[in-house]
Specification:
The complex is a heterodimer of chains A (887) and B (142). By secondary structure, chain A is an alpha+beta fold. Chain A contains 21 helices and 40 strands. Chain B has 142 residues and is of the alpha+beta class. Classes of the chains: A alpha+beta (887), B alpha+beta (142).
């Protein structure tokens, strides 16, 4: 009877499945499409015409079915019939849209006790699952599907059907809200019941192994670790990782999709959380290796095509700048860096092997790295390297890892923590690489430096050179350029950026000759070239109190005190005088108080294909010079010389160094100035004239016209006067640069060749010598002064004065000598205007009433409105008159 | 009325946010097989389909017994916020379960008001555990 029952059972189940197969596509909305198949057709008719006399009402049908089922259940051999009735009732309920009642019939079905083979049991549960599926009970369907799967491999079953079990298990996944797509994990929320999902996955892994498909087991195991990691305890994670490793020891995990016999395709599981990459960044090359385009092209790209100077929309667009496009360039053939931050969430040391990046666009040779991450550590910084081989747009879209024996291709688009789906960077043709070394020691910048420009320059500079020089000293800095790249250097250009130095760097501080270096081009790989920068330390040389003494109006006598003495003798007398004077101690600058001068020397070089494309590299060298005070000029004075074409420049030189300084200057012996000593020197200077600065420019210029003129004169003086110093102790030597001195207007007038040429005749004899004029007391002496404007511009508003005075040779000058001399005619003559070349003559006669030595001060002053400054020209040599009694 | 009980609060994505088992006091550490507990979870999960159907049939939050599987009955309670309180029990105890659900609902509502608690995430609170234990003893196993 058992076999009969079984066969009956199978027959019933066949019928049921057939019925299900046929009715599966039907929906409640389209009952008319039903095939003529007994009961369903009747039901359909019933639904179409609910008021038919012979038909039961919907509720009555349920009642009838219930009644029938109660009757059937009384007899154990009617089990098959009862089951069929239940299934049919369920269908009817389904059509009536009464899912709940339908589920009640299905519920009942589970408890019908009939003897069935294992195969039929599986079929029964499978069918039950399908029916539940139809009434929309996905969870119930999954439940019975799993029961069916377990039935396939029940311990009592002599030949467990692992394959069917696997297929059934796979079908439960949907009901348990589980997807085998690794891209859906990790999720922000928990979907489904993690404990159940884990159980199912474990069962799938186990089934896959039993099926003899280790690749499948590895795939599911890696998915389990990848997707369910959040729901695993640390211990479980560790254990499962060990299990996975033991599996992959035999069959390594691959990054390709797996096709199943059923036709389903299992996507590859990239282990994106082992390790978790938190950030990915392409790194720019080191500042000195960055390729740069010629500036002309940069300006064209910078111009906006918007007509508005400012627009809020525009700025917002700029904010939204494409983060995936790098705003820097990589160079073909050179190692480039990518920075990653990785986290190891596992409670054991994670070994990541063969980590590299995935790229497309151009040839890119990634360098493979192996990492070992300590347990539960991170974020740790990791740098991946690679070398672009060709030029163009390089796109990086993911990375490759080999963890726990599973090869993973992790793409950025699947990583939630990485914003961009890919990163692209432009690769430009290869450029040469220069290594720059200097002959000077490297600069040691203090940490307390607040010079922002300098700090910025420090970051980008390849090297630096430091020197400590006395003002006026010069030093050579030899830069050695070695081509350490693979491409010959074909062009070099040098520029100097002095903007980082807060006081302006004087022109001529750094000078170089590029031609010598350029003659050495092309510089082959490995070859060296040199380049010399001459540093001329220019520093403050004027003492701070320089103007105080200058502003005093020098009296005629003091200026003319010893005109007859030769210039050679004068400095010695001056020196003795100066040594008696206590040295100027007002805020004396210390030697150690060095003034720093910073500049950045930029070497632009290029070669090879990069040069053709217009790219170059820039190596910048910071030049840092500490300028020490050596000799300070505390006082500058100009004295007229015997010859009208010359004058004497006297300088009070203050040696502020700790060393003895030897001064050498033209026409003189060397002069030694001890440390902290002040000495005066005099230098004969040829007079010169400079064009007047135009007054109309005065309001625009910031510096006053007097200062501008003084600067002009001092610059001219500096070219004429060559004063050198050397320190015997250290062997250093330098020059005294006179550019920094300030001249008073009087001094400037003395230096400049006067626009007025003098011709003095005394008693109709031209006065040319320095010999005193002999004169008889009481006899008139005529003095004829004629002045000629020898300049190219008219002189306006000048006054010619002939003034007699007495110099007592003891420092006292008697200007008021009315009783001693009388003037016939005018002592003074106003001249409105003197055109160029015009000569004005003035004659007056003096009668001396007593004997003695007299002098005549003959001068012309100009108080023009046009000129910026009063000018004063004095006739030299001074006319000396010796009055004697008539013999 | 001592029996075995398995209680779970299920969130909106079918995710359990709280689970607890109650056993009669006379045999407390009953050999709870791992397999057994899994079965509870499978049954509770499958019963969610019925809960979702039945919750629209009544105005009450307490849905009484919604499902059964083998010796297990499944009772449910759906909160106003759509959280589902599921109870698996092997003995009829309608009033006790109703009271238990009512008190657990109140406890849950209080817990959900904690600004540091994010809805739909697992409840990790000793106070909540103690409350659940207490109500379990009071209404179910006690």
């Amino acid at each position: 009877s058992d076999s009969r029952l079984t066969s009956t059972g199978s027959a019933v189940w066949k019928a049921v499945s057939q019925f299900l197969d046929v009715s599966a596509p039907y929906t409640d909305e389209s009952p008319s499409t039903m095939s003529p198949n007994g009961l369903p057709m009747a039901t359909a008719e019933f639904l179409q015409d609910g008021k038919a006399k012979n038909c039961l009402s919907p509720d009555e049908i349920i009642e009838k079915y219930k009644e029938a089922l109660i009757q059937y259940s009384k007899y154990s051999y009617a089990g098959v019939v009862e089951m069929e009735a239940s299934v049919k009732a369920c269908r009817v309920m389904l059509m009536q849209g009464k899912n709940l009642q339908a589920s009640e019939f299905l519920q009942n079905m589970v408890y019908i006790n009939i003897q069935l083979t294992d195969e039929d049991k599986i079929q029964r549960y499978n069918t039950l699952s399908a029916l539940y599926e139809q009434i929309g009970f996905k969870r119930k369907a999954a439940f019975f599907k799993r029961v069916a799967a377990m039935q396939c491999v029940s311990p009592n079953n002599p030949n467990p059907a692992w394959n069917s079990c696997y297929v059934l298990l796979q079908e439960t996944l949907d009901g348990y809200s589980l997807s085998l797509d690794p891209r859906q994990f990790p999720r922000a929320y928990t979907y489904g019941w993690p404990a159940i999902q884990l159980r199912i996955l474990h069962e799938m892994v186990y089934t896959a192994r039993k099926m003899g498909n280790p690749a499948l087991a590895v795939r599911h195991m890696s998915f389990l670790l990848h997707a369910m990691s959040d729901h695993l305890s640390p211990f479980e994670r560790k254990e499962l990782s060990k299990v996975l490793e033991s599996y992959t020891a035999k069959v390594p995990g691959t990054p390709v999709p797996l096709a199943l016999e059923s036709g389903a395709i299992l996507p590859a599981v990239p282990m994106t959380n082992l390790p978790t990459v938190r950030s990915f960044k392409l790194l720019d090359l080191a500042p000195h290796l960055r390729p740069m385009k010629k500036p002309s092209s940069q300006t064209s790209s910078a111009t906006s095509n918007s007509p508005f100077i400012y627009s809020p929309i525009q700025s917002r667009q700029q904010e939204k700048k494409d983060q995936s496009k790098m705003d820097f360039l990589w160079v073909s053939g050179e190692v480039c860096e990518m920075a990653l931050q990785v986290i190891n969430p596992m409670p054991f040391e994670l070994k990541v092997q063969n980590m590299s990046v995935m790229s497309e666009g151009i040839d890119f040779e990634p360098l493979i790295s192996n990492l070992s991450l300590p347990a539960e550590s991170g974020p740790l910084g990791v740098t991946l390297l690679g070398t672009p081989q060709t030029t163009g747009q390089l796109k990086l879209f993911g990375y490759v890892t080999h963890v726990l024996g599973v090869k993973s291709h992790c793409k950025f688009k699947d990583l939630r923590q990485i914003a961009e789906t890919d990163y692209s960077v432009e690769v430009v043709p290869g450029l040469p690489k220069l290594q720059v070394t200097t002959s000077l020691p490297k600069a040691a910048f203090g940490t307390t430096n607040h010079n922002l420009g300098l700090n910025k320059a420090k970051e980008t500079a390849v090297t630096s050179a430091a020197a400590r020089l006395y003002a006026g000293e010069s030093q050579e800095c030899v830069l050695t350029l070695q081509n350490v790249g693979q491409i010959p250097v074909e062009s070099i250009d040098i520029s100097l950026d002095t903007s980082i130095s807060s006081p302006k760097v004087p022109s001529g501080f750094f000078t170089w000759n590029l031609e010598n270096t350029q003659a050495q081009l092309p510089l082959m790989p490995g070859a060296m070239a040199t380049f010399t920068v001459l540093i001329k330390a220019v520093g403050e040389i004027s003492a701070q109190d320089r103007k105080t003494t200058e502003n005093e109006e020098p009296s005629p006598s003091s200026r003319h005190s010893s005109p007859k003495k030769s210039p050679q003798t004068r400095p010695r007398s001056m020196r003795t005088a100066a040594m008696t004077v206590p040295p100027v101690e007002v805020q004396q600058p210390e030697e150690e108080k060095a003034q720093p001068v910073d500049a950045v020397l930029k070497l632009m070089y290029s070669g090879g294909e990069g040069l053709e494309e217009g790219y170059h590299r820039q190596a910048s060298v910071i030049l840092h010079v500490d300028v020490l005070h050596a000799l300070l000029v505390s006082k500058v004075n100009i004295l007229p010389a015997a010859s009208p074409r010359h004058c004497h420049l006297t300088l009070d030189l203050h040696n502020v160094t700790k060393h003895e300084v030897v001064i050498s200057y033209p026409d003189n012996d060397d002069l030694i100035i001890e440390s902290k000593q002040l000495k005066r020197i005099a230098v004969r200077v040829e007079r010169f004239s400079l064009p007047e600065p135009c007054t109309s420019e005065a309001p625009i210029s910031i510096i006053s016209p007097v200062d501008a003129r003084s600067q002009q004169y001092s610059q001219q003086l500096a070219t004429l006067v060559d004063i050198r110093w050397r320190m015997p102790s250290s062997g250093t030597c330098g020059v005294v640069n006179l550019e920094g001195i300030t001249l008073s207007p009087e001094a400037m007038d003395l230096i400049s060749i006067s626009p007025i040429q003098w011709a003095v005749r005394i008693d109709d004899k031209p006065f040319e010598t320095e010999e005193p004029v002999q004169c008889i007391m009481g006899r008139p002496m005529s003095v004829q002064v004629s002045i000629t404007n020898s300049s190219s511009e008219p002189v306006e508003g000048s006054t010619l004065v002939v003034h007699p005075y007495q110099d007592l040779w003891n420092g006292t000058v008697l200007n008021d000598i009315h009783g001693k001399v009388a003037c016939i005619g005018c002592q003074q003559k106003d001249i409105e205007k003197m055109n160029p070349g015009e000569t004005v003559q003035h004659t007056c006669t003096f009668v001396f009433f007593c004997c003695g030595d007299f002098s005549l001060d003959i001068r012309a002053t100009c108080t023009s409105r046009v000129r910026t400054q009063d000018h004063k020209w004095t006739f030299t040599p001074i006319v000396r008159i010796t009055v004697q009694e008539q013999k | 009325m001592a029996g075995n009980y398995y209680f779970a609060i299920v969130g909106h994505h079918d995710n359990p946010i709280f689970e607890m088992e109650f056993a009669p006091p006379n045999k407390p550490a009953e050999t709870k097989k791992d397999d057994h507990r899994h079965l509870n979870q499978f049954i509770a999960h499958a019963a969610l389909d019925l809960v979702e159907e039945q919750m629209w049939m009544t105005n009450n939050m307490y849905l009484k017994t919604v499902d059964r599987f083998n010796e297990w009955f499944v009772s449910a309670f759906v909160t106003a916020g759509g959280m589902r309180l599921i109870m698996l029990h092997d003995q009829k105890n309608e009033d006790g379960i109703k009271n238990f659900f009512q008190d657990m609902y109140e406890t849950y509502a209080k817990h959900a008001m904690n600004p540091f608690y994010e809805p739909n995430t697992g409840i990790k609170s000793q106070a909540f555990d103690r409350k659940a234990q207490f109500y379990g003893k009071k209404y179910l196993t006690g």
